[in-house]
Design brief:
- It contains 3 helices and no strands.
- The protein is mainly alpha-helical and 191 residues long.
- The chain has a domain of 114 residues.
- The mean pLDDT is 81.
Length: 191
């Protein structure tokens, strides 16, 4: 049924094409007779040529068109598969971008935390060193104060000795002086 229909459609197209060609030549006018025999031979010739082509090349032509249709269908299926793969890859890339954003936030947060810890450690170290310097300064001040007090005591003692000596010289007589020297010598010799 399908084959008969195709042949009928082909024959109708040929006849229409031949009619148009005949009218374009100027045939079909009222005075001139239509060479029906010539026209019939041409149509018969065309039908025979189309039949021969259909007999020997019909399967190849049909396979050509069916192969082309299958190829197009295969390409469409392949394109659909590629589109799905591309969508999957796009989702993966979007997830990795979101993951990168999260990693960036984590790294920044960790850097801030480490920075704060380092800042706190530096402050504590500075306070510890300041306390050491303060303690060392206080010890130096105390040592300096002791040295100044010792120097001051030595000076005061020297001054007291000088004052006592000058007072003794004024009040001590020659005989008292000799007696003191003798007592001192006895103490030194006995000891």
């Amino acid at each position: 049924m399908n084959r008969t229909r195709t042949i009928a459609i082909s024959l109708a197209i040929v006849l229409l094409g031949a009619g148009v060609a005949f009218a374009a030549e100027g045939g079909g006018g009222g005075d001139h007779g239509l060479p029906w025999a010539n026209f019939g031979f041409r149509v018969l010739n065309l039908v025979i040529v189309v039949g021969i082509i259909w007999k020997f090349g019909g399967k190849a032509i049909r396979d050509l068109f069916l192969g082309r249709r299958d190829k197009i269908k295969s390409e469409l299926d392949d394109l659909e598969t590629r589109r799905k793969d591309a969508e999957g890859k796009l989702r993966d890339v979007e997830q990795s971008i979101a993951s990168i954003e999260q990693e960036k936030e984590d790294i920044l947060s960790e850097s801030r935390r480490q920075g704060e810890a380092l800042k706190q450690a530096i402050i504590e170290e500075a306070e510890r060193k300041a306390e050491q310097i303060r303690t060392s300064a206080e010890a130096s001040v105390a040592a300096e104060r002791r040295m100044v007090l010792q120097d001051l005591r030595a000076e005061v003692a020297d001054m007291v000795v000088e004052a006592a000596e000058s007072m003794l010289k004024e009040k001590l007589t020659e005989e008292d002086h000799r007696k003191l020297v003798d007592d001192y010598l006895k103490k030194v010799v006995l000891n």
